[in-house]
Predict the structure.
Amino acid sequence: MANDGTILTAADLAGNGAYGNDPDVHGKFGIFGGRYVPEALIPALDEVAAVYEKAKNDVAFLREFDHLLRTYAGRPTTLTEVPRFGEQAGGARIILKREDLTHTGAHKINNVLGQALLTKRLGKKRVIAETGAGQHGVATATAAALLGLECVIYMGEVDCERQALNVARMKLLGATVVPVSNGSQTLKDAINEAFRDWVTNVDTTHYLFGTVAGPHPFPEIVRDFARIIGVEARRQMLELTGRLPDAVCACVGGGSNAIGIFHAFIGDEGVQLHGYEAAGHGLASGEHALTLTAGSVGVLHGSRTYVLQDEEGQTIESHSISAGLDYPGVGPEHAWLKDSGRATYHGVTDDEAMAAFSLLARTEGIIPAIESSHALAGALELGRELGPEATILVNLSGRGDKDMGTAMKYFNL
Amino acid sequence: MTTLQTVFATAKAANRAALVGYLPAGFPSKEGAVAAAAALVEAGCDVIEIGLPYSDPLMDGPTIQDAVHRSLLNGTRIADVMRTVEGVAATGAATLVMTYWNPIDRYGAERFARDLANAGGVGTITPDLTPEESEPWRAASAAAGIDTVFLVAPSSTEARIKAVVDCCTGFVYAASLMGVTGARETVNVAAEDLVKRTRAHTALPVCVGLGVGTGKQAAEVAGYADGVIVGSAFIRRMLDAPDEAAGRESIAVLAREMAEGVRSRA
């Protein structure tokens, strides 16, 4: 804890690089990351990187961020032990990090508050963002309303339909929602469209990127703002259980909530890190979002990482029942964690995720986001594997209110 | 095979700018793309860029996105792109491939460079490959004897311009504006300044693209640049034409107007 009374320090925000997992000057995590973007955007990316570098070492910035996290986002979020759910996980001790309790209902608020403050430091008055499930869009619209920024959200038409409630929320918050009708009409196409807007309006606009993917410095910045999840959880686990967990579980789409909770534990060698991707209808069906588990190394959205692509480098459309995991790329740091062996990634099908979704609701009275339900399903299996002595920390990255339409259809409610 | 060096030397000797036309492979059909490019060459295009259709064209505006989408629906593969290059190179125009980086990366840089050279291609334009990441591609291209063209933008600092032109052979592509591809009412005034700033760092020809759509604009750009690049304006006409033949006729009219433009420097 910092002496000045805040709960956040520069080290909390950005780590100290001691684990060797900060990107190099070109934004590379090993062979992953970097910048594959039109030259026109390079100066803007350089500017974001420079302003961020200054901000993260500036006590005034950290205080401001910390103040918003505590008084607006509702941090620190609590841990909740879920013994009835744990009975189904081989009796393992399952503990949830309750990001679902933050303002707007998902961990995304952490990153957007940080980047919205950064937008002000950049001297820009307009933010744009992509959104899949709509959570990042809602969070961005929220932060924009709070800080008086103009806000435009790009969202695939298919996703607009799946997440109509979130579209209404964004509009209510004063944002303009632009449905994207090209390509697969999902998150990847929303990102393409947001980049097109950015390259056109870069003088006035900050691209408030929503996950740890994209060109450098986004993977680093988004990670650092999401990092608070793991920093808090690590302290809270020590307080609650007197020790570190045996394993940390999180769902992985682009990977921001996962990197957020993993990062503070990367140096703790005894703590297993497990990421769960959306296996959709199963690997064999070809309808999945198994970027890390079944993809190959390529370049998508400005970064070298694992990608779902064919043998000629065309992106293959992903599938998941959860819009937030329906993405054919993944953050480069996850690619690096996978190849280095520090983290392990698995697939969870739509059906497995929905079973865990329902189980948590019935055993613990918590309705999780379908995204987070992938991590819960993973924890059920991992608990059975590790046994009743194991303690497993699960990032409950968001709440399920937004998923009621999907749940009604799936469970015939 | 006509090289870029020959094209720009010839244009310079005639005190005019070169005319560069862009069309994606596989649009409006696999054969139709070659025929359309041949029509452009006959009407006065000196250089043809064949676009390699990619699923995530984040630098392209709606017109090229639409054409590329149709091309992918037509089942266009890299082998088709190479065949298109072969057909277009046979017309006598210097023929390049314009592509996002991932298809080359996945195909294999050396293999792509070799296959392109064998097809009669003279080089590539890679809009999302930055100097920092370009080394493998420059090495493969040099080994295959093809040129590497990269982009500078109005936002580029002097240091960036230098870094980019140091990676270029053949010519430098100056993006006239901050934005995606697509014809505009006027060519951005930033273009002339960017060309001037680029020339301070290189003796290579500098061509201007993005937003050029009329003969008048071509003449204006030819006043300060070595080449004028036109893409979306041709593709728009092809998309609007009732059939392939009408599309070819329509783009030939525009290309003739452009060819006249680059010969009447404003």
Remarks:
- The radius of gyration of chain B is 17 Å.
- The first strand of chain B starts at residue 18 and ends at 24.
